Amino acid sequence: MKFNYFIPENVEKFIKDAKLEEISIGCSDSQVVRIKNKEGCFYLKIMKENLLLQEYKRLSWLQGKLPVPKVVMYIQESGNDYLITEETSGKMLCDEEYTNNPDIALSVLKDAFHKIHSVDITNCPFDVSNDYKLSLIEKNVKNNLVNTSSLKDETRKKFGSAENLLKYLKENKFEEELVFSHGDTSLPNIFGKNKNFIGFIDVGECGIADKWFDLAICEKSILRNYGQEYVEQFYRILNIKREDNKVNYYLLMMELYL
Question: Is the full-model pTM beyond 0.85?
Answer without folding.
Answer: yes
